[in-house]
Amino acid sequence: MSSPADPITTLIATGQEAVAVDAVMLTRLTRMAGDFAVNLSIAVIILVVTVFAARWASSATRKGLGRVRGFRRDPTVLSFAVQVVRVLVFLIGFIAVLQRLGVQTTSIIAVLGAASLAVGLALQGTLSNVAAGVMLLILRPYRVGDLVNINGNIGRVQRLDLFFTQISDANNVKIMAPNAKVFGDMILNLSGQKTRRIELKIGVGYSEDLTRAREVLTAAAASQEAVLTDPAPWAGVTDMLDSAVQLTLTAWVRSEDYWQTRADVFQAAKEALDAADIQIPFPHQVAVPYGDDDLVLPLTGEGFSVRRAQGESRASGFDPARDSDQSEA
Questions:
Q1: What phi and psi, each to the nearest 5 degrees, are found at residue 315?
Q2: Is the entire prediction scored with pTM above 0.70?
Q3: Closest CA to 99 of 51, 47, 29
Q4: Contact present, 226 and 208 (Cβ < 8 Å)
Q5: 128-180, pLDDT tens digit by residue?
Q6: Could you tell me which residues come within 8 angstroms of residue 232 by beta carbon, excluding any fewer than 6 positions away?
Q7: Do residues 9 and 67 make contact, with C-beta atoms less than 8 angstroms apart?
Q8: What is the dihedral of CA 96, 97, 103, 106, to 10 degrees?
Q9: Across-strand partners of 150?
């Protein structure tokens, strides 16, 4: 038979055990919170160090590669390499932060590997831009500073990164073209060669001396200082239009002088043809009498004047005198 003091003793013992367990749990929680605070502080420090390390690595890469002649003359590869180094430093720092916080990076890699198909389908546009950027860097159809025509947009290449090609057009408009579209479309590198050919289409009248017109055009082109003497300017008949004979004038210039020289040659050709009294056909508007001298109709002809005599109205079945007599009768 138990004494009355046994339940009290049991209750006290149970309470002491509970207090001991709570003390142990509190100690463990305190230790875990302290460890987490330490790990979090270290992770923040690692993140800050990663940011500064990425900047330092980018600057060091730019300076180091800038001393190499091949990279110094090709800013496209230099900027691309700097971006790759920056991304790698950030990736290493991010993995270090996750490990310090207790995240199992191997498990994350395994999960990403299992979900690689879904991620690839979701990011296929972004990944294609990266792949296209790498191919553009390897093949080098253009470089930073080149004048290009991409998808109908003409401008100078300002930058080539992992995702976009940045160009600036003549109006200083910033154009960002995805690398996938650039690589998948036709690329015209307007400054890829040292020289370019100017080609102008100019029409003269059918009654003009074509040989003399060709001589006048070639002399006008050769008079421009920026036009190269080899190959020499050339002009020839290339088409016969409805109201004009088309002459084609060609001249070679340096690529950097193309646009201004083209305008100068055009102006010189026009002034030379005017000085030589060679007609350049253009639309004319004349008044055509139609039966009655007081009744005239405008008629537009391209490159020639159209005149119709009063007798032509009779030939077409309209006789003003006859119709007047019939109306009086």
A1: -65, -25
A2: no
A3: 47
A4: no
A5: 888 888 888 888 888 888 899 988 889 999 888 878 899 998 899 999 989 88
A6: 218, 222
A7: no
A8: -30
A9: 153, 187
